[in-house]
Amino acid sequence: MFSMLFPAFESGVIYAIMALGVYLSFRILDFPDLTVDGSFVTGAGVASIMLVNGQSPVLATIAGMGAGFIAGCITGVLHTKGKINPLLSGILMMIALYSINLRIMNDRPNIPLLGQETLFSMFRSFWEGLGIDEALNSVFAGIGLDPTTWSIMALMILVTFTIKFFTDWFLRTEIGLALRATGDNKQMIRSFSADTNKLTVLGLGVSNAFVALSGALIAQYNSFADIGMGIGMIIIGLASVIIGEALFGIKTIMRTTLAVIGGAIIYRIVIGLALELGFKAGDLKLITAMLVVIALVLPKILEGQKERARKKRKRSEFEKTYALGPEKEGDNVASTKSNSQSL
Amino acid sequence: MLQLNQIHKVFNEGTLDEKIALSHINHALDPGDFVTVIGSNGAGKSTLMNVISGVLSPDVGEVVIEGKNVTNLPEHKRAAFIGRVFQNPLAGTAPSMTIEENMAMAYARNKKRGFRAGVTKKLKGFFKESLATLHLGLEDRLNAKVGMLSGGERQALSLLMATFTEPKILLLDEHTAALDPSRAELITTLTKDIVQQHQLTTLMVTHNMQQALDLGNRLIMMDKGQIILEVSGKEKEELTIEQLLQEFQRIRGSKMTSDRALLS
């Protein structure tokens, strides 16, 4: 059980960065940005091609992130300067990025990274010198959890939480506040001398930088970059955001970013369980879509049930308090009617 | 302080719907002037506000603020000198953000935004002090989301946010029209106090003739994109609603068409 969950947890923490990017565009900017499907691959492609060409993993990862930033900015410019509808700007960029990503990947739909030095192999060699794996395994072996290395988990928690704390900090700066207001009330923040166009471009840039960073890390984690690895990524991000928000709450920004990370991990665990149950890899998109639908519809159904139960309770309370005879009740109705007429 | 030179604005030019919204408006506000603007529907009051704030750009003419020609300055840049309160009480604040965050954004109006913390301890103290002047108890709810406030509270907050950084020009666009009478009364009183306290140069559009007479040192009446009447000082103090309506009829040869103006 735990040994099955471990890799799901690991990849969940990596995908969490992508989910934080989707949170920035979708929730903070109120901009449903489909660029994500393309920029995820852009990050993976740039990082992979640089690794294959012998660049340092740190530099390759950062370059992937930078490419995502630029892609996001272009979507922002299409929307703000070109006055193209948000959804369409994202779709246009996503399609354009398919060709660009292929070019980046040297016209190869798949770049294997087996045997290449990656961020994870680099960190692992450092980590194994510390001897923490043995210590952790001796503790957790009792519950059947003894992965070959804890280094990926440790590194990813470090990176993901750095991104989380950066986001929390950024959204509380003067620029961050204006960015949030851009998604909340454009007219208002413009009247307080903020350039909502620039803020939208910046917000989408940062959002897609996160997405591309996540893509660069996933490529190194899976040891390949693939031109199709971004398909449906926006929905996965959305699923993570919605599941996280529903389960862990949205009281403050810090709480919500934590919830989004939690949502990304839970999503991966659900997918892991689905595979365990015998679903095929090709079924996962359908499962994801259904998960999002459930996460969107279920709270509303629960809300409706709660409201009906509340009304029923109120009604029975009312009937108890005003337990009047049938004639009197009739009088009451009549008097209310005449009241409303006189109004 | 504010000068409008030959402002002309036409909507839908060359079509059947062509409408001259502003016709060669010339007007000047001295520092500390509080001008109330009345007029029937479609007189061009809101268009005038939008031209001053930069939402619309005039076809001809220029807007000058403190000797600086701002006609070609985009809305968000002009906002450094202009405070605005809108008719819709929900328009002036960001609902999903807290009171202190909203105040912090308003505070940054005439400053360059950077990567400093938006809300600091020092600012919080200042925000509390400012909010206390509203007497609504908002100073104890700095961390409440603005979306939880009532319409009246939100409009009071909008008014405070638009004014506490002392803009060169304050534009009030029927900012009490969407509130119930007692809330409108509160906002009117607050407006009077705040404008007086900061000596703000103010332009206030209103449908409420009594309000237009009670507030400010000058009054202008607009019709069909023109300023048709201007009263100030002692003359304005002695003016009554009946006289205003008669005056309109005398100038235009027809009755004022705004039902809302007549009723209120």
Characterize the structure shown.
Chain A has 343 residues and is mainly alpha-helical. Chain A has a domain at 2-230 and 249-257. In chain A, 77% of the residues lie in helices and 2% in strands. In chain A, strands 1-2 form a two-stranded antiparallel sheet. Chain A is globular, with a radius of gyration of 25 Å. Chain B is an alpha/beta fold. Chain B has a single domain (2-263), classed as 3-Layer(aba) Sandwich (Rossmann fold), CATH 3.40.50.300. Chain B contains 10 helices and 10 strands. In chain B, the strands form 2 sheets. Chain B has a 6-stranded mixed β-sheet with strand order 6-7-8-3-9-10, sandwiched between helices. Chain B has a 4-stranded antiparallel β-sheet with strand order 2-1-4-5, with helices on one face. In chain B, a hairpin with a 2-residue loop joins strand 4 and strand 5 (68-69). In chain B, helix 5 (151-163) packs parallel to helix 6 (181-198). The longest helix of chain B has 18 residues, at 181-198. Chain B is globular and about 60 Å long. The model of chain B has no long low-confidence stretch (mean pLDDT 89). The chains are: A mainly alpha (343), B alpha/beta (264). The interface between A and B is medium-sized, with 22 and 36 residues.
- Based on the coordinates given, report the CATH architecture of chain B: 3-Layer(aba) Sandwich
Strand content of chain B: 15-25%
Largest sheet of chain A, in brief, is:
2 strands, antiparallel
Overall strand count of chain A? 2
Q: What's the SSE pattern of chain B?
A: EEEHEEHEHHHEHEHEEHHH
What is the overall silhouette of chain B?
A: globular
Question: Helical element count of chain B?
Answer: 10
Give the class of chain A from helix and strand content and strand pairing: mainly alpha
User: What's the domain count of chain B?
Assistant: 1
* Intertermini distance of chain A: 68 Å
**Rg estimate of chain A, integer Å:** 25 Å
Uncertain parts of chain A = 327-343
Q: How many E strands of chain B?
A: 10
Report the β-strand fraction of chain A as a percent range. under 5%
**Rg of Cα set of chain B:** 19 Å
Strand order of the largest sheet of chain A: 1-2
